[in-house]
Amino acid sequence: MLGNIPESDWRHFKLVHQVLLERFCQRTLDDLGAMLRAREGSAHEQHRRAYELLVDRDEELARAFDDFRRSTAVMQLAIMRRMGLLSDDELSVFSEQTQKVVRGVDSLRSAGGAAPNGGPATPLGNSGVMEGSSVS
After folding, report:
1. Entry pTM
2. Other Cβ atoms closer than 10 A to 99
3. Do residues 76 and 82 make contact, with C-beta atoms less than 8 angstroms apart?
4. CA–CA separation, 57 vs 130, rounded Å?
5. pLDDT digits (tens, 9 = 90+) for 21-54
6. How many CB atoms lie within 10 A of CB 97?
7. Residues 91, 102: contact at Cβ < 8 Å?
8. Position 65 pLDDT exceeds 50
């Protein structure tokens, strides 16, 4: 069922997509703020780390949110779930079939499989915070 999802799931996806996009962006801004408040290293080093964080996060944002089509919705949900953005409660509004596929893809990734879109695994852990970044 990696093709089109049921109409009711598509309606839910359109709603949750915006919520999760905002959540992802807020986490990125929070991480960036924490990084800048830490004032570790020279101004140039801080600038470089801030730039690298934003480049990495922009790639993750594109992977999870940019291919907004009904035919890719399940894969996007699985990516969002792996990034720690999609909660159990948010997933529960989808059909059993969609939930099963999303959880199945997530379990494959948890077992050390490749990223669902064939790209590199996301540096976000289950917390949704980039490993090695500090969050206050």
Report:
1. 0.75
2. 17
3. no
4. 9
5. 999 999 999 999 999 999 999 999 999 999 999 9
6. 13
7. yes
8. yes
- In this structure, what are the phi and psi dihedrals at residue 124, rounded to the nearest 5 degrees? -80, 130
Phi, psi (rounded to 5 degrees) for 49:
-65, -40
Half-sphere exposure of 36 (CA within 13 A, CB side): 12
Residues in the chain: 136
Distances (CA, A) of 92 to 19, 76, 95, 97, 102: 15, 16, 8, 11, 11
State both tokens at 103: 């959880």
Q: Looking at per-residue confidence, does 2 or 102 come out higher?
A: 102
Sign of the dihedral through C-alpha 122, 124, 128, 133: negative
Distance CA 70, CA 50 (A): 34
Q: What band does 109 get if pLDDT is binned at 50, 70 and 90?
A: low
If one counts every other C-beta atom within 10 angstroms of the C-beta of residue 45, the result is 10
Residue 51 has which token pair?
Answer: 């730039």
Residues 105-118 have a mean pLDDT of 58
